[in-house]
Amino acid sequence: MSYQAIREYLIAVLPRYQAAEKKGKSQILDEAFLVTQLTRKHLIRQLNETQEILALKKPSGRRPLYDRELLLPHVRFLWIQMERICGKRMKAAYPDWLPRYTSETFTTAVRLQLEKMSAATLERMLRVIRKGEAASKGLTSTCPARYMKNKIPLNTFDTKIDRPGYMQGDTVAHCGTSLEGVFANSITLTDIDSTWTENRAMLSKKAVEVKSKFIDIEASLPFDLLAVNTDSGSEFLNRPILRFMRPLEAGKRQITFTRSRPYKKNDNCYVEQKNFTHVRELFGYERIEDPELVDLMNEIYKQYWNPLQNFFLPTFKLKEKIRIGARIVKKYERPETPFDRLMRSPHLSEARKESLKKKKLGLNPFELKTELECKLRIFFDLLHKSKARKAA
Q: What is the pLDDT, as a whole number, of residue 337?
């Protein structure tokens, strides 16, 4: 309820309150509390004033700088297009998105207000939009591979990384509510230095399938793959993956292959957080069994989702972590896109940087988002039809 509406309501009930007995005043206060959500003491102070003084009172605090009713639809639209990221990341993404944003009501004045608005003010607007949103949780299908553990060393090398190429990998099961039978899995590789992330879908977690996705991802990376750290699941700890990482042929590139400690998710934290933001937020928790849908998932990942995330959506990166008594204080770097981090890296060649720049110039975030939503509608229509056929 706005301040103006509260003031008009109090002015209307003030004569009745001042003329009532003690019991009547208590009932009016109960009613006013339900309507305005103001405390009883505050209501008593307001209703003991005269109508003239109450009408002249102004709200406390600084006058609002931004027209919320005007800006909220634009903030909502941009927030949805940017995959519901936080206010600080949205603010950092504006230089890439606002020049391409077109709307009949998006005037120069609106654009200037959005650019001037701080990340904290933007976050306050997003709180209004976020109400009522919730996410469910899924199952885990990680099965430890005990035999191969001795061949692949433990490592938590994220504190030593200063260049792109050191990646963490994980899989997400699209199994619905049951782990029985054959179902799709998504494999995710994320770079620790730049947060560049690639996703691929496969129908099973067989070693041959996982190896083929590693080959596909390595070919699409804008930097050399130097090291991979995974969990201790059997889809990673097997001979085909070990041979891919460490070829026996002389002269072939060698990739440092390490694993995290079992049941210690923080060892693989960079990719674990991507399981939700890059997989679950896209495909949810539905069970996916159709091979045709897996092909469509790969098309969505490669052509729309990964370019949108890597080129246009800024991410946070931990700068330092300090323990103060029992508290741990974390400080983060300014939000940047993975593309921007690669452009700043002295370890990426100028030829690769130019190639990335040309690729970004050919992309439009709003077009990517529109085409992504179109493909997702087709995907979920096919998924529901497939489930209907099986149920019949």
A: 96
